[in-house]
Write a structure and sequence with these properties.
223 residues; five-stranded parallel β-sheet
Amino acid sequence: MANLPNAVNLPAMTKSLFITLEGGEGTGKTTLIKSLYAELSLRGHEIVLSREPGGTEGAEAIRDLVLKGDANRWNSMSEICLYYAAREDHLMRVIRPALLSGKIVICDRFYDSTRAYQGHLGPKEQRVIKCLEDNIVAEYKPDLTIILDIDVEIGLARAGSRKDDECRFESKKLEYHQNLRNAFLAIAKTEPERCKLIDAAMPIAEVYKSALALIDTALKART
């Protein structure tokens, strides 16, 4: 994967679109993103589907480090460094090349998750995140972020029914998850043009319909 582009300005005429899905545990992001990918692909759009942490071989290795194991395996500052190491590789190898070629990128989580999961813990974390965000993400920010919101206890019950071992964050206390939900709501309130809230407690079909309508609006603005 040599000679991949670093952070540069997007060409003026590119028609790329960067969509991210965010939310706490058990909000249904993975199910929704697969449905959106299928529908948009059927319409003839060229889609790059990815996730964070992950999306590249190196970033997937980091994913195992941060999502598995004991809840106290890492402190918040260690988590930020690991997430941004994964994000830099993901941006370099997947996201930037796709956007530079005019594709639609749909990513299950991105920098808002770091802002919420680690940033809500204090001003020190927020300062470090802001510095890394400015220098690594730079202008490659999402065009549309869909934040799925749900009652914390319902979300954790959903997450607990999943059959995988990526449960490190689910095992944290209820208070942590309530603070996490509040952090996502604050992000949506701060950036209403980019971030759109959807009630994830609605039936799956309604969540999908709402998300697709938001994407259709973004696609119209893209042309």
